[in-house]
Specification:
The protein has a single domain, classed as Gcn5-related N-acetyltransferase (GNAT) (Aminopeptidase). It has 6 helices and 7 strands. Strands 1-2-3-4-5-7-6 form a 7-stranded mixed β-sheet, with helices on both faces. Helix 1 crosses helix 2. It binds coenzyme A. The site of coenzyme A has 17 residues, from strand 4, helix 5 and helix 6.
Length: 179
Amino acid sequence: MTLPNDCRLVVCDSKRAQECLDMCKAILADIAAKNPSWYLIDETDDEYRALFSNPECFALGIEAPDGTLAGCGAASYRAEELERFRPYVPAEDFAVPGRVGYVEFIQVALGCRGCGFQRVLFQELEKILVDRGAKYLTSVVSPDNKYSLANFHKEGYREVGRYVHQRTGYPRLIMIKNV
Ligand SMILES: CC(C)(COP(=O)(O)OP(=O)(O)OC[C@H]1O[C@@H](n2cnc3c(N)ncnc32)[C@H](O)[C@@H]1OP(=O)(O)O)[C@@H](O)C(=O)NCCC(=O)NCCS
């Protein structure tokens, strides 16, 4: 997928962490009343911002012509997140650092939806993970988040399991894509 001509892909380092957090909060406020299960962030604000300077993480954004972010996403190798996928990956692969990559989150700003930005961010994050040796791409999604789930399927992810999110009781699908 390609970006509209006037948007560009950018690396989101710690300087853009607050902008991504602000976008996240606007999204959470927007779905709070009707669809609170669709998107969950377990990190505190400090932990969320810290992801952008964590050496095990990297983040990309789509910058609109006015310089603001239309969307952003992050991927990582955080062991506490990867652990959830251990049962679904052969042990010999799971043991190799970098062989399993995790898409932490992808979010598209309110008002910037419908341009396929989630899929662009998926593809760009995945390229980096694959270049670094990933053979398994992993993430989780709400079964109710029809827009996101449709994009997971279009990108070739399959549901391998599900669990209940401890804090909220909301269901989550465990998604994997073999490269
Ligand atoms: C899921 C998400 C990233 C998809 O954004 P996107 O890349 O713009 O979605 P698409 O381009 O595939 O949109 C396809 C259609 O769904 C609509 N759509 C997408 N997300 C929507 C939402 N949350 N609410 C209502 N409609 C939405 C788009 O407007 C578009 O409609 P159209 O075809 O009539 O123009 C975005 O909704 C979002 O940021 N949600 C909150 C965070 C989230 O759920 N992230 C995924 C967690 S795993």
